[in-house]
Amino acid sequence: MISSFIAAFMIGVLGAGHCIAMCGGISGAIAHANKQTTQSNSLAPLFYNLGRITSYTLIGAIVGLTAQIGLNFGAGYDFLVILRFVSGMTLILIGLYIAQLNSAILQLEKVGRLLWRFIQPLARQFLPLKTPYHAFPLGFLWGWLPCGLVYSALTLALSTGSALSSALTMFAFGLGTFPIMFLVGSFSTKFNSLIQNTKFKRFSGLLLVLYGLHIIYIALVQLSAYGI
After folding, report:
1. What one-character DSSP code corresponds to residue 200?
2. pLDDT-based confidence at 197, cuts 50/70/90?
3. What is the pLDDT of residues 122-141, one digit of tens each?
4. Do 40 and 177 meet the contact criterion of CB atoms below 8 Å apart?
5. Under a CB-based contact definition with an 8 Å cutoff, are residues 150 and 61 in contact?
6. Is residue 30 within 8 Å of residue 223, measured between CB atoms?
7. Which of 25, 33, 94, 209 is a good FRET partner for 18, with 20 to 30 A between their CA atoms?
8. Cβ contacts of residue 69 below 8 Å, gap of 6+?
9. Is the pLDDT confidence value at 193 over 80?
């Protein structure tokens, strides 16, 4: 579903500021490694983000396969539309959080903390980076960090109803976060002032709210077609 890919990409672009807030420490560590080791470590931000996008794609495939199995066992298309509605609601919450207007989304991020307790120690073993290539497994593991923005994209991916489409949706989401995350990883000091700017946070956050409302509107129209 092309619309899901575009939507996921836009979620990544508009919510990249939240990604920076969540992963800023790791990005800083990578930037520090670049300054302290050889010039070849300028590849570290690239490999870190490739690892992160790979993990998003894998998670998308897993949840998409779950939806696909559910559909094969009788779950209706209306269930997928409801998931799209939930995705819109999550987008609104993440947008309000980024705009510094509401922090309710932080409750959702607690969902993945149990799993993160096991993954985080593994990720920490790759710090400090010995080579730029170690940034790939670091990024892959860090991609499992509990994040409301990722969960919002996942509900959208889940609503595609197939493992392949869900994986591609999360890949598109990862691509949306890539540009600014890569730049911050490479030039963190130059982008810090922009990221921390209140107007920038309000603008990107409110755009996500508007996009969430748009997704909810579409879901309501689709649900009305089913008489729900």
Report:
1. H
2. confident
3. 988 888 888 888 899 999 99
4. no
5. no
6. no
7. 33
8. none
9. no
